[in-house]
Amino acid sequence: MSEISSMLITHTKATIEEMETAWHGGVDQLLMRLKSHPLVEECAVLKTCNRVEVYVVSPKGSKVLLEFAKHMKVSSRIIDFLDHDESLRHLLRLASGLESMIVGEDQILGQVKELYILAKKANTTGKILDTAFNKSIQVGKRIRNETGINKGSVSIGSAAVELAEKSLGGLSGKTMMVIGAGEMGTLVAKALANKDIRVIYVANRTFERAEALACELNGKAITYESMEKYIPVSDAVISATSAPHFILTHEIICQAMDNRENELMLIDIGNPRNVESSVADIPGISLHNIDSLKSISEANIARRKEEAKKAELLIEEELELLKKQYKRQQADRIISALYSTVENIRKKECEEAINKLKARHTIGTIECEVLNDMTHSFANQILAEPTKILRDAAEHDDELFLDTVAELFKLNGAREKCSDSKP
Prior knowledge:
It contains 15 helices and ten strands. It is α/β, with parallel strands linked by helices and 423 residues long. It has a six-stranded parallel β-sheet. Helix 14 runs antiparallel to helix 15. The longest helix is centred in the C-terminal third of the chain and has 71 residues, at 290-360. This is Glutamyl-tRNA reductase. Keywords: Coiled coil, NADP, Oxidoreductase, Porphyrin biosynthesis.
């Protein structure tokens, strides 16, 4: 009996370094290596910065994956091995963002789609994985449409952009400056990249890093020394450096505000602080620091956790539907074989009847079509109720009934195939 089995190496147990060493070769190579195993019927793999996951359909999936892990020299300490039902639940949770470091993030849904497309192109998936991945993608979309799990920024960098967007009434057409091209500055700049901003100035002590980030964002790199000239023309400045001294002093901002009528928004997410606290006293200045952004981030995290509870309920509902879908597929092979058997009988008897009539009368195309349609109708009406009963039996795990029907109509080949592919 073939089922889905999976092995997971994720941020919950493994370090980034351990996840990197667990991955050998490209996706296509790994898929081909898995598919070449005599016990593997279908397979798919997923790799992101936070996870490496392998899914196989096999009558002995646990054994296959244990051997695979040993071959890859991956410690079992950092691996979770899941059986069929656990794999299905995990996949639905994964696509919905419930397994991500940042709960509800959207990127993982696209990554699941990409993994599935790669496996399809490599011809390593079949009916069982197709059903699972299509359902997971559908559920991932539903969760995001029916809950607020992906709403609200949950990092300081993205919270800074969210605050600027709310305070400025949107960022479309605005001029923004980001000071710092390190990890935090890069996160801020990337969060700004999709906001239809008129221009993003990027300043950094190392100009080459500012250039690289600005190029990536279609922004403009400016030298660290010249940034004071660009502050007056900016709608908001987000400072995210690790400099040990104030980057924006009272004097610098006073000069920037000379002859400026509009309010200037300053967001300080540097560590230590980049903006001198007395800057907040300058007329026309709106200064926000990391503490105020933490409250936004924490509130959004709490909100997402509440939305995650709703998502959990929807996932369990969808999981039951998925299990029923698989059970219906159990009966489909028997039903298909039954229809095929009846169709062969119908076709043979119809042809014989037509030949007998032709021997005594002239029969045209219309008469042949009437006979053909009539026998089709008989067959379909006779099989309609058995079809319903067979699917109902599969949904209720009535293996004995399915075996009896297969034996009764000499459909043992179909039943064997059904059992072999039953998840």
